[in-house]
Structures are given as structure tokens and as C-alpha cells.
Design a protein that fits this description.
Strand order of the largest sheet of chain A: 1-2
Structural class of chain A: mainly alpha
Helix content of chain A: over 70%
Largest sheet of chain A: 2 strands, antiparallel
Low-confidence stretches of chain B: none
Number of strands of chain A: 2
Radius of gyration of chain A: 22 Å
Largest sheet of chain B: 5 strands, mixed
Mean pLDDT of chain B: 87
Structural class of chain B: alpha+beta
Order of helices and strands of chain A: HEEHHHHHHHHHHHHH
Shape of chain B: rod-shaped
Number of helices of chain A: 14
Radius of gyration of chain B: 25 Å
Number of strands of chain B: 9
Strand order of the largest sheet of chain B: 5-4-8-1-9
Mean pLDDT of chain A: 88
Strand content of chain B: over 45%
Shape of chain A: globular
Oligomer: heterodimer
Order of helices and strands of chain B: HEEEEEEEEE
Helix content of chain B: 10-25%
Chain lengths: 253, 137
């Protein structure tokens, strides 16, 4: 039985890795022969690649940091504060999390248009800060933290921020890393928002270049896709232990 | 565990350093790999024409006509134009066929094929071909 499971897992792993392998393979092949011409075309002839790469880093990095700050405060309020209707509020978060992205795109667009933030970096950053996914995950994790530490902190300090920073954050560090990884990957991969909210090339992230790779000369699509994978892959390899631990709150408590 | 972390840190630093260096130097490297050219507008040069009037007298008149340097005669003539490539404006060359007329000491008259607004390639440090991207010095 265990052997069958291993074989099935192996087949699934191959199926999942096949597109990645095909992308890496296609990036170094030209007319069936090994060639790095695609990388040359991308790195030394497609200069929009660099601002787009750093835009992606900026959007993913800043929205991860800001979202973590917001998510930690929300999850703390939903688990520790004496709030009336917090169960209803949490239910609303879960419902929002279930909604497909396309449902919230239009309200976001209208809001950004009215605030004059279309075609600005804030147009991408602001909506991504208030994602419900992190709140739901962190809420579940925070339910199991040691309440005595928080009580002890309350006796020492009346500052909620101090309690969160010194009493809560050290206990949920693993979960923060796990959520950060998810948020980073989500922000890194976003495509619909920049295509809808941004007009200028200089503001677009790298995902847009890959989506429109046909417009660029040379075989830049596959090399761009390979380089696009690297930062998320590195982030995953750095934090994969935290990811497993941070998302196993069901078994932990 | 610690070894893996060091390895990953090394790869990350290497990757982002490479991206940073390439961000700064890629255009310069590209510019070095394409032909560098100097361009000039076709000059209006005075050419001397002989004519015969109604009474049969032969005279000379000087008229300013569009011209190119004599060295370019007999060679393919290229003009530069700007076009979009990979999301930005770049400079390319296009071969034009020039019909030439009278010659002076240094210039040759352009009868057809060029206008005064065209930028003609005067010198190039490498071979040119129709549609080649160039860097204008």
C-alpha cells in the first residue's frame, strides 16, 4: 500500500514538474539544438525586462511587508480583543477569501480611479495589502498561542503594539514566514491587476512581459519564464521548513 | 541545514548581484555589439552646370543641389530611421538606391532617392545590412 502511494506520489510529482522542466528545456533550445541565444536576446536586447523585474520585486516585497503588518493586527484583534461580532467579522473574511479575484477587480478599479491612483504604483500596492487570506491563516494559528504570555505582557505594558511585538510575534514567527511566502508568491505572480490598473510599461511587473512575450523580438519567452521563477523558488527554499510548520496548526493544537 | 542556508544565501546574493550589474551594464554591452555609425543630412552643394542659350552661346551657372560625399558613390547608401523594438525606440538603417547626377570635387549630386531630411550614414565601424540596428555616435 505504501509502495503504491509512493508510485502515485512520484507520478504526480513528475506531472507537476513537467511544465517547469519543459520551460527550462525550451529556454536553452533553438531549432532543436542547445543555444543560449534566448538568454542573450532577453538580457542584452530586451531592456524593458530590468525595470519590470525590479517592479516585481518592489510590488512583491512592499506588499508582503505591509500585508504582514495589517494581517498581524487584524488576526490579533480577531482572536484576543473583546470585540462584539468578531465571529461575524471573521466569517466575512472567510467569504471574501473564497471570492474569485475577478469579482473584486472592478470595485478595486472604481475605487482606485476615484482616488486618482490608477497608473501609479500605489494602485497595485494598496489593494494587495488588505488580502483576507493571511488574516484567516494567522487567526487560526493565533488561537493556539500562549495566553499567559499576553496576560503577563498586559501587566507590564498597556501598549497593544508592544504586546503584539514582544508577546505575540515571537510565538507566531513560523506562521508569519509561511504567510509571507504565500503573499510574496501571490504578489509576484499577479497579472490581472497590473494589466488593468497600469498603462505605462515602466510601471509593469515582469508577469506582464511574460504574458505579452509574443510582442518582443527573439526567443525571450522561456528565458524570461525561467528567470521569473528564480526569486519565488529561492524564497520557497529559504522558508520551506517554516511553511510546513506554519500551516500545520490543525495538527499542532 | 546550515550548509543549505549558506548555499542558498550565496545563490541569492549571486542572482541579485548579477541582475543589478546587468541592469546597469546590459545596454552598454548591447551598444558595443552593434555597428556604430556617424550620420549627416545630404548637403546642399553648389554644382556648376553648362547651358546653351537661345542664341547658341554656351554659359555656366551654379546651382545648389542635394548631394552626398563622393566616397559614397558606388557604395550601398544607408539612411537611419527610428523604429520600435522590444517596447522602446531604437535606431535602424535602411538601404536606399540613389540616382546620382553631376559631380564636383568632393560631392556628387543626388537626383533621386534621398530627401534633405534623411540622415545618411557617412561612416560605419562594421558591416551594415537592411534593417540592422545601429548606434549613432
Amino acid at each position: 500500500m505504501k509502495r503504491v502511494g509512493k508510485v502515485l506520489f512520484g507520478i504526480l510529482a513528475v506531472l507537476f514538474l513537467l511544465p517547469v522542466g519543459a520551460t527550462v528545456g525550451a529556454s536553452v533550445l533553438e531549432e532543436g539544438r542547445f543555444s543560449l541565444q534566448g538568454y542573450w536576446d532577453l538580457l542584452f536586447d530586451c531592456f524593458v525586462f530590468y525595470p519590470m523585474f525590479w517592479n516585481s520585486m518592489l510590488y512583491a516585497g512592499v506588499s508582503t511587508l505591509l500585508q504582514l503588518a495589517v494581517v498581524t493586527l487584524c488576526a490579533f484583534a480577531l482572536t484576543q480583543a473583546c470585540l462584539k461580532g468578531k465571529k461575524l467579522l471573521f466569517l466575512a473574511y472567510v467569504v471574501f477569501m473564497m471570492m474569485p479575484l475577478q469579482v473584486t477587480l472592478l470595485p478595486n478599479y472604481i475605487g482606485l480611479r476615484d482616488l486618482g491612483l490608477l497608473n501609479t504604483r500605489w494602485g497595485i500596492l494598496l489593494p494587495s495589502i488588505f488580502s483576507p487570506f493571511g488574516v484567516v491563516v494567522m487567526h487560526q494559528y493565533m488561537k493556539g498561542i500562549d495566553g499567559e504570555v499576553i496576560e503577563a505582557m498586559r501587566l507590564e505594558s498597556s501598549s497593544v503594539l508592544r504586546i503584539i511585538c514582544w508577546g505575540v510575534v515571537p510565538q507566531i514567527k513560523v506562521c508569519i514566514f509561511a504567510v509571507a511566502l504565500f503573499v510574496f508568491a501571490e504578489s509576484w505572480n499577479m497579472l490581472e491587476q497590473p494589466m488593468l490598473f497600469l498603462k505605462e510599461n515602466r510601471l509593469q511587473p515582469l508577469s506582464v512581459l511574460i504574458a505579452n512575450a509574443g510582442e518582443y523580438s527573439g526567443n525571450v519567452l522561456f528565458p524570461a519564464a525561467v528567470l521569473f521563477m528564480v526569486p519565488v523558488l529561492l524564497a520557497y527554499l529559504f522558508f520551506k521548513d517554516n511553511l510546513e510548520e506554519g500551516l500545520t496548526f490543525g495538527e499542532r493544537f | 541545514m546550515k550548509g543549505r542556508r549558506y548555499f542558498l544565501s550565496g545563490v541569492t546574493v549571486l542572482f541579485f548581484t548579477a541582475m543589478l550589474v546587468l541592469t546597469v551594464t546590459a545596454r552598454e554591452i548591447h551598444n558595443r555589439s552593434i555597428p556604430h555609425v556617424t550620420v549627416d543630412n545630404p548637403a546642399r552643394t553648389a554644382f556648376t552646370f553648362t547651358y546653351t542659350d537661345e542664341e547658341g552661346n554656351i554659359g555656366e551657372t551654379s546651382q545648389k543641389r542635394l548631394s552626398i560625399p563622393k566616397e559614397l558613390a558606388g557604395q550601398p547608401v544607408f539612411v537611419v530611421y527610428e523604429g520600435m523594438k522590444n517596447g522602446e525606440v531604437r535606431t535602424f538603417v535602411q538601404q536606399v538606391f540613389v540616382e546620382t547626377g553631376v559631380e564636383s570635387e568632393a560631392f556628387i549630386e543626388v537626383v533621386n532617392g534621398l530627401s534633405s531630411k534623411d540622415k545618411v550614414v557617412v561612416t560605419a565601424d562594421g558591416p551594415l545590412w537592411d534593417g540592422a540596428e545601429v548606434y549613432v555616435d
